[in-house]
Amino acid sequence: MKTIDVCLSPELMHLYPVQDKTVVVVDILRATSCMVTAFAHGVESITPIANLEECQNLKLRGYVISGERDGKKVEGFDKGNSPFEYMGEQVRGLKIAFTTTNGTQAIEKSKGAKDVIIGSFLNLNAVAKYLLLNEHNVLVVCAGWKGKVNLEDTLFAGALVDKLKDYLGPDCDAPLAAQHLYNIAKDDMVSFLNASSHVRRLNKLNIHDDLKFCVTPDQYTVLPRLINGVLQLR
Ligand code: MLT
C-alpha cells in the first residue's frame, strides 16, 4: 500500500525526505486557493517566488506581479491574495509571479520532491484522483503561518487522508490527527475556523468573503503542477 504523510509546518520538512514523493502543497487561506482559482480561470502560468524583491523584478519581464505579506496586498503589486482577484476573463493567458508569506515559501521548500502539486478544497477531488493514479508515496505540506501549525491546512490534509483512506496508509500520526480534526469540523468548516488565528487576522483586515469560498470543495477540476520551477497545468 502506498503511504500518505502530513508535514504540519514547513519548519518540520527536514524530518520528511521528499525526493521520492509526490508533495501536495496547501495554503487554504489563501495562496493555493488563489492559484487553483487562477488556473481554473485560464492563467497560463504562475511562478511562485519566496522573495519579495525577486518577484517585483519580474514586472520588468512582463509578468503580472501578485503578492501578500501578513495578509495585505504588497504596495505597488498588481494583485493581492484574494481568490476573487483571480476570476473572470481578465486573468486569461496571464503569466503571474506570485509571492506570499507562507504559501510560496512552502513551495520553495518542496522543490526537491519527485513531483509537486497544488492542493486546496477547491480542487480536492482532482488532487485525490491524481494521487490515486500516481505511483509515489505522498506528503502533504501544510504552509502554516510563519512556521506555526494552522487549522485550515490541517483540515485539508485530513480531508485528503479521509478520501484516500482505503488506498493510502498513514505513515505517522499526523495524518491520523488531521483526519480526526477534519471529521470533527467537516459539517461546518466556516464556524470551526472562525476561532482560527488566520481567520481572526483576516477579519481584522476586513476580509470576510474569502473563508467561505476557500473551504468549498470541488469548485474546480484543475491540478497545477510545478515544472522547472513554474506552476502550470499538465
Ligand atoms: C500566505 O501565503 O501566507 C497567505 O496565503 C496569507 C494570506 O494572504 O491569507
Task: Explain the overall architecture.
With 234 residues, the protein is an alpha/beta fold. Helices cover 33% and strands 22% of the residues. It contains 9 helices and 11 strands. It starts with a strand and ends with a strand. The mean pLDDT is 97. It binds D-malate (MLT). D-malate binds next to loops.
What is the topology?
Elements: E1 2-7, E2 21-26, H1 31-40, E3 45-48, H2 52-57, E4 64-69, E5 72-73, E6 95-99, H3 103-109, E7 115-119, H4 124-133, E8 137-142, H5 151-163, E9 168-170, H6 173-185, H7 189-193, H8 197-204, H9 210-214, E10 224-227, E11 230-233
The structure holds D-malate.
Characteristic terms for this protein:
9 helices; alpha/beta; 11 strands; binds D-malate
Secondary structure class reads alpha/beta
- The count of DSSP E runs of length 2 or more, i.e. the number of strands, is 11
Q: Outline the low-pLDDT stretches.
A: none
Give me the strand/helix succession.
EEHEHEEEHEHEHEHHHHEE
Q: What characteristic shape results from the CA principal axes?
A: globular
Gyration radius (Cα, Å) is 16 Å
Query: How much beta, percentage-wise?
Result: 15-25%
Strand order of the largest sheet: 7-2-8-1-9
Q: Count of helices?
A: 9
For the sheet with most strands, the description reads: 5 strands, parallel
Distance N to C terminus: 26 Å
Q: Which ligands, by name, code or SMILES, are bound?
A: D-malate
Mean pLDDT metric: 97
User: Roughly how much helix do the residues carry, as a percent range?
Assistant: 25-40%
